[in-house]
Amino acid sequence: MNFNEYIVENQLGIVESGYTFQELTTIGCGGAIETLYTPNSVASLQKAFVYIIEHNLKYFLLGNGSNTLAMDTGFDGIVIHLRKLDYSYEIKDSILTCSAFYPTIKLAYDLAKEDWGDLSFLGGIPGLLGGAIYNNSGAYKDDIAHHLLDVTYINSAGKLVTLSNRDCAFSYRKSIFHYIDGIILFARFQLEKIKTSEVLERRAKERKLAQPLESRSMGSIFKNNPLISAWKVIDALGMRGFHINDATVSAKHANFIINTGHAKSSEILSLIELIQKRAELEFGIHLAYEITIL
Ligand SMILES: Cc1cc2nc3c(=O)[nH]c(=O)nc-3n(C[C@H](O)[C@H](O)[C@H](O)COP(=O)(O)OP(=O)(O)OC[C@H]3O[C@@H](n4cnc5c(N)ncnc54)[C@H](O)[C@@H]3O)c2cc1C
Predict the structure, then answer these.
(1) Between 3.30.200.20, 3.30.465.10, 3.50.50.60, 3.40.190.10, what CATH number should domain 89-190 receive?
(2) 80 alpha carbon – ligand 1 mean position (Å)
């Protein structure tokens, strides 16, 4: 029995072909997905994941696709699409337990309605919580690692494992999940009562002015070098507005690359590599990727 038959026979969700990364990522690039698997519950996801690992099948976890650049050649494996899974949170004794499938912008605003303010930095990050934990996402000098108590994930045997903050090995846009087979399911955070509705509104206005939110992008492409922000390096290279066909360095924010029409992933990647090589050659600065390249 192959994967598709296993999913259908055991009613573990939907398996489809014919989708592309172009439709499922915020940058709007990337080729065909051989198998798109949308689980119908966490229990189904657990079973399907065990099947994938036991049969050594190629897979990729996709949340909201806001940090992922997939190649034009597509993906000859299974993409596990997490965006349609149910999500919720509960707060008890100032501790938030939140599903990894919760959209992060919505989470920041939902918490702000109840004056639970600490996760307000998520207010402009258009992913799901699982992707934010994977990448230790952050903004305004704050990040996931700063607030997370522990995280529970499905391991390669299909079992639920809980890791403390310390065991997540968080660093700048990194966590242990870059190195292990595991699907983040939920996490617990320490909260405090802080009013942040006004902060969220102000930052939303500022971001509109400073970031190309009207265009398709993946957010910042490069991590900031400890000594200098990546956008300053790109500016110093004179590459603001530079483009390879529809793959363009944003005129609004030089660390954003936008798809102004029908950019190919190969063009986006060429632009990224060109910036990286020039920064290295001309300034001796290494710009590391912040995005996932598949
Ligand atoms: C306009 C814009 C602004 C942005 N601003 C910021 C910002 O201020 N700060 C910032 O840090 N980022 C920012 N980003 C980048 C992005 O939104 C974040 O990295 C986000 O957390 C990614 O979540 P996602 O669900 O979209 O992840 P995806 O792109 O779907 O996946 C990213 C990686 O996470 C893995 N992953 C996803 N879900 C899980 C899971 N449940 N378990 C295990 N692994 C998983 C995937 O396999 C992949 O490797 C921005 C992006 C855009 C488009």
Answers:
(1) 3.30.465.10
(2) 15
Ligand 1 centroid from CA 9, angstroms: 32
For the chain, list residues with pLDDT below 70.
none
CATH topology for the 3-81 domain? 3.30.43
Nearest CA to ligand 1 atom 7: 125
Predicted pLDDT at 225: 84
Instruction: Quick: pLDDT tens for 56-82.
Output: 999 999 999 999 999 999 999 999 999
State the architecture of 214-293 in CATH terms: Alpha-Beta Complex (3.90)
Q: Please work out whether the CB of residue 255 comes within 6 Å of at least one atom of ligand 1.
A: no
What b/e sequence results for 19-39 when a residue is b if at least 16 CB atoms lie within 10 Å of its CB, and e otherwise?
A: bbbbebbbbbbbbbbebbbbb
Kind of pairing between the strands at 292-293 and 68-69: parallel
- Stated length of the chain: 294
Instruction: List the domain boundaries for the chain.
Output: 3-81, 89-190, 214-293
